[in-house]
Amino acid sequence: MSINLLRGGGGGGGQGAAVARRLLLRHLTRSPAPESLSRPFVRSRLFSNGLKESPVAPSLSVPSSRASSTTTRNAFVTWYLGRIEARPVLTKSLTAGAIFVAADISSQMITLESSDSLDLIRTIRMASYGMVLSGPSLHLWFNFVARIIPKRDLISTLKKLFIGQTVYGPIMTSIFFSSNAAAQGETSAEIYARLKRDLIPTLKSGLIYWPFCDFITFKFIPVRLQPLVSNSFSFLWTIYITYMASLEKAIVEEKSND
């Protein structure tokens, strides 16, 4: 019966066949096409109608080497900040010692003759000064200045800069020359002669270099990181003062008996 209706045969079958064909066509148009055929079909129909597929946004991938170096750097910064919070004095002391070692080796490499070798004893002296004196003193100094002048506006920054150049700088430079000379076995008279010869020229050179460094440190850097930034600036300065400290003994002026 259904076959006859589809073929359109028999009596009133013409009308029935027409109805059956309409039902069949409606069913076929509603049925989803197979996955393998539907997408190409839809794409071909879209392109035939002058439409374009939506572009797929390219994935922004970071090269693996750059990503790994960034991750390592961020991990180190996080670790270092954690050490500053947990053990501030020790961390800053070790940092200062490492910077003094690097600066002293650089200073020796600049002035070293081709036939000479590095003076490791001198490097150990510089490392000891950085760890024992420079690192702890910077920690105490920056906390003290932040306590007496807590603001970070321009006037307050200039006040901190002035105190650093007139108080902390001369004191620590004198201690540096004196302790280094004493470690080399110089007498008190020889240490005094060295200070008389080298201290003022060194402080004058510091007035050219340190005001700019101190302004950046006091104005823009948090107190807990100021010793680190100051030590970083001091790398070039330490190359200079380690050279000054390595100069020959100053001539001791003998007092006349007249």
The mean pLDDT is 81
> Could you tell me the strand content as a percent range?
under 5%
Q: How can the largest sheet be summarized?
A: none
From the alpha carbons, calculate the radius of gyration and give it in angstroms: 40 Å
Classify the secondary structure makeup into a structural class.
Answer: mainly alpha
Strand tally, please? Answer: 0
The poorly predicted ranges are 1-10, 41-48, 50-54
Quote the distance from N terminus to C terminus: 149 Å
Into which percent range does the helicity of residues fall?
over 70%
Membrane topology: Multi-pass membrane protein
Main location: membrane
Family: Belongs to the peroxisomal membrane protein PXMP2/4 family.
Subcellular location: Membrane
List the helices and strands and how they pair.
Elements: H1 2-7, H2 13-30, H3 35-48, H4 64-86, H5 88-111, H6 120-148, H7 154-183, H8 188-220, H9 226-245
Helix pairs in contact: 4-5, 5-6, 5-9, 6-7, 6-9, 7-8, 8-9
Keywords: Membrane, Transmembrane, Transmembrane helix
Pfam families: Mpv17_PMP22
Subcellular location: Membrane
Features of this protein?
258 residues, mainly alpha, elongated
Written overview of the protein:
It holds the Pfam family Mpv17_PMP22. It is a multi-pass membrane protein. Belongs to the peroxisomal membrane protein PXMP2/4 family. It comes from Dioscorea cayennensis subsp. rotundata (White Guinea yam). This protein is mainly alpha-helical. 76% of the residues lie in helices and 0% in strands. The protein has helices at 2-7, 13-30, 35-48, 64-86, 88-111, 120-148, 154-183, 188-220, 226-245.
